[in-house]
Amino acid sequence: MKTVIYPGSFDPLTNGHLDVIQRAARLFDRVIVAVARKGEKQALFGPAERKTMIEHSTANLSNVSVDIFEGLLVEYVEQQSGHAVIRGLRALSDFEFEFQMALMNRSLNEKVETLFMMPRASYSFLSSHLVKEIATLGGDVSAFVTPEVKEALAGKLAQAGAN
Ligand code: PNS
């Protein structure tokens, strides 16, 4: 039974993230999407909101579950008896940070392996940051996020506008 952990901020989940989740779900017995609680203050969505959006968007994938974690990723991976960490790699610009993080995690715990997966090329420009910016400026994000996330973004922005 191979369990992999896919950690991230997911503020919010994009179709690029979802593409990586779908690919991982085909390869491994169990995929835990782990939402990092850190950065809560700067995030648009709270950790529970991010978790719910991912749960709704992955409801058709029976071997995928969603959790919230805090503290060191390597400790969380051990707690969950995870075999590896999955990270998405979009472009060369992601590489430096990902390389640093993978090797740092390995130096913290030699047993924690990091595997990189490339999302579909048409998602290689996609990021949560850009999705939030486009939505905030009234642009259409339908091609970049699931209907659940689009609705949550609209709700959040309407709420912000009312305050
Ligand atoms: O989606 P992100 O923001 O690129 O995800 C980064 C994340 C949450 C995977 C990373 O910051 C992380 O693992 N945080 C947990 C704390 C930790 O273990 N830090 C040391 C990493 S070398």
What can you tell me about this protein's structure?
By secondary structure, this protein is an alpha/beta fold. It has one domain (3-162): 3-Layer(aba) Sandwich (Rossmann fold). Helices cover 45% and strands 18% of the residues. The protein contains six helices and five strands. It has helices at residues 15-27, 47-57, 73-79, 92-108, 128-136, 147-162; strands spanning 3-8, 30-36, 64-69, 84-88, 113-117. The chain has a five-stranded parallel sheet with strand order 3-2-1-4-5, with helices on both faces. Strand 2 (30-36), helix 2 and strand 3 (64-69) form a beta-alpha-beta unit. Helix 2 runs antiparallel to helix 6 (147-162). It starts with a strand and ends with a helix. The model has no long low-confidence stretch (mean pLDDT 95). Residues 7-9, 36, 38, 72-73, 101, 104-105 line the site of 4'-phosphopantetheine (PNS).
CATH overall fold name? Rossmann fold
At CATH level 2, the architecture is 3-Layer(aba) Sandwich
Query: Roughly what is the average pLDDT, rounded to an integer?
Result: 95
Percent of residues in helical segments? 40-55%
Q: Work out the strand percent.
A: 15-25%
Counted by DSSP, the helix tally is 6
Envelope shape? globular
CATH class equals: Alpha Beta
**Biggest sheet layout:** 5 strands, parallel
Strand order of the largest sheet: 3-2-1-4-5
Radius of gyration: 16 Å
What layout of secondary structure does this protein have?
Elements: E1 3-8, H1 15-27, E2 30-36, H2 47-57, E3 64-69, H3 73-79, E4 84-88, H4 92-108, E5 113-117, H5 128-136, H6 147-162
Parallel strand pairs: 1-2, 1-4, 2-3, 4-5
Helix pairs in contact: 2-6
